[in-house]
């Protein structure tokens, strides 16, 4: 494990930067059926390969990649989260590298990884071109950039997301990725919590107070359906004429 630095001006995360403990509860609840990782394996299998988790947060997904990957690197711009990640992966096998850096300045050499995974971390359509270019730089020929983002068109969660982000245009975002040569896979999965209190706390960091209270009232039990999009772009193999 090693820690490196790279200068950048990251976009602050509105949830995990301020409430990492609650976001840990959210991470444990997300994808209760493993649907996202199953879909990822189909489009960007990381078995025996070198993986970069870009915007890795507190490193929640790093151990899962490390079970099958040849090597795993987590890159995160927020120093308190870098420190949390270092503690999480201290005893990981194989060892996990943790680097401070941003999507626009990835502290890795050209052609050094096979899979770049970015989950609800940075890429929101128009304006993220610099991050796409950097990801393609560090990918080896044939490698895959997989951008996993929430699908605002699906279910109650999508409705609450649209209520808080009235200017967010899901169709425009999808058109942007399509124009950049990305494929698209839609995934529906469940978030399942240990308690109603845990659910309420997570909704409270994801939405405005008014929307969070409505979401909580509209969700009986401990689970809710959430949609995701996986946008994938493969690095070219050989010369492009």
UniProtKB/TrEMBL annotation:
Organism of origin: Rhodococcus tukisamuensis
Record keyword Transferase present: yes
InterPro entries per record: Methyltransf_25, Methyltransf_Superfamily, SAM-dependent_MTases_sf
Statement: the UniProt record of this protein carries the keyword Methyltransferase: yes
Protein name: Methyltransferase domain-containing protein
Alphabetically ordered keywords of this record: Methyltransferase, Transferase
Domain Methyltransferase: 51-143
Any one GO molecular-function label of the UniProt entry: methyltransferase activity
SUPFAM superfamilies in the cross-refs: S-adenosyl-L-methionine-dependent methyltransferases
A UniProt-annotated Pfam family: Methyltransf_25
BP GO annotations: methylation
